[in-house]
Amino acid sequence: MPLDRINPPHLSPPTGFSHAVAATGIRLVFLAGQTALDGDGKVVGDTLPAQFRTALTNLLAALAAAGGTPADLARVTVYATDIAAYRIHARELGRIWRELAGRDYPAMAVIGTTRLWDEQAMVELDGTAVLS
After folding, report:
1. Which of 24-58 are b and which e, b meaning 16 or more Cβ less than 10 Å from the residue's Cβ?
2. What is the separation, in whole angstroms, between the first and last Cα of the chain?
3. Helix 90-101 vs helix 48-65: angle between axes, to the nearest 10 degrees?
4. pTM of the predicted model, to two decimals?
5. Distance, CA of 111 to CA of 107 (rounded, Å)
6. For residues 40 and 75, what is the distance between their CA atoms, to the nearest angstrom?
7. CB contact at 8 A, 18 and 105
8. How many Å apart are CA 10 and CA 25, to the nearest integer?
9. What pLDDT is attached to residue 1?
10. Which DSSP letter does residue 24 get?
11. Per-residue pLDDT of the chain (132 residues; tens, 9 = 90+)
């Protein structure tokens, strides 16, 4: 594996992320921010979890097109327009993540923002993957 997930025991236990990820692969893939856009370029989903599912599906589709798998994700940044709603739905978002991407968690951050490029978008994900 080109990634070594590092979670020091003296840090708080990570939930849905890794504290650090060391990469030894030979190909970096930088994944552009993905929102809940469908194939026609329209934002779909009326709830944060629905939009998160579509955004993550889009991110993983871009990764797959580059030859990668969810286990190759070294870093993901989540941008959310409502951090309180993100926290409320955290368990459901975690279930969606595990269903689509598994349990090989990348280093992650969630950042609050006032709005995203598409006004109706509630969440956007970008990332970096390391392929061997």
Report:
1. ebeeebebebbbbbeeeeebebeebbebbbbbbeb
2. 7
3. 20
4. 0.91
5. 13
6. 28
7. yes
8. 28
9. 65
10. -
11. 678 999 999 999 998 999 999 988 789 999 999 999 999 999 999 999 999 999 999 999 999 999 999 999 999 999 999 999 999 999 999 999 999 999 999 999 999 999 999 999 999 999 999 998
Rounded distance, CA 75 to CA 78, Å? Answer: 10
Residue closest to 31 by CA, chosen among 64, 59, 2, 12: 59
**Residue carrying the six token digits 């280093």:** 107
Nearest 10 degrees: Cα torsion 85, 86, 88, 90:
160
Q: Which of 120, 52, 42, 38 is nearest to 86 (CA)?
A: 52
**117 vs 72: CA distance, rounded Å:** 27
Q: Which pair of tokens denotes residue 107?
A: 């280093």
Distance (Å, rounded) from C-alpha 9 to C-alpha 37?
39
Sign of CA dihedral 96, 3, 66, 118: positive
Residue 30 contacts residue 39 (beta carbons within 8 Å): no
